[in-house]
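User: I'm designing a mutation panel for Alpha/beta hydrolase and want to avoid disrupting the core. Could you give me a predicted structure to guide residue selection? Please restate the sequence first so the numbering is unambiguous.

Assistant: Good idea. Sequence first, for numbering, then the predicted structure tokens:
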Amino acid sequence: MDVKKMFEWRGHRIAWGLRGAGPPLVMCHGTPWSSRLWSPFADALARDFTVYLWDMPGYGASSKDPGNPVDLGVQGEAFAALLDHWGLERPRVIAHDYGGAVSLRAALLHDAAYLALCLVDVVALRPWGSPFFRLVRENASVFARLPDAVHEGALRAYIAGASHRGLRPEDLDALVGPWLGEEGKEAFYRQIAQADERFTEEVEPHLAELPFPVHIVWGTEDTWIPVDRAHRLREAIPGSTLSLVPEAGHLIQLDAPVALADELRRWSATRPPVS
């Protein structure tokens, strides 16, 4: 699914697209990914829903202006503004990685309302970030000066580590590609430099206040955000449900695509209770 439409917001150009017909369903990606990671699942769900995909500012086909912030605070506001732009009042939302914090901030801080929320291996509870992510965050200006070949090698190793089963060369190339070249390299280190756990700390005390059903899906072999966070998240959100996917790492979309598709199909077919 292409994201060729553009939403102008506070100097950002946010790429988005939609497909299908039916109730609205929105998919949120994480870092260092883009909507492309969700595209095959969006195509499948488009048989029953109008599925919306978008690239966060600084990611994918969205603008990467170095003068514009791309932190989680900005992303949460951008998502709420985008939902308003689309005219969606209570869509279903599926979020992965950073998209978890983005969707939670939009709901808890910016009055976004969902029919139901599915959180897939998400950034939501401290601590978060792989060891490499934290190292880069603490030394972003140094990493940004790496020679291009060294940057690409480190990037490939970093992204490959998100998979438990191992990535096909073509999948690894697709995930690495957007972060190469001068613009991509600068954008990659910029988004990590602006990562800050205060953005999740701000919403953690309010997770119990979420007014819609929450379902959590997690790969049991996720080394970026270990599965203990899934159990903690379920405890933090009363009434939430949890499904664990074996033999899947953080890139659950590529490690266990069939299992994840089945899980999302079951979740999307469930009618949430009337609030």
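For picking mutation sites, this is relevant: The longest helix spans residues 72-86. The chain has a mean pLDDT of 96.
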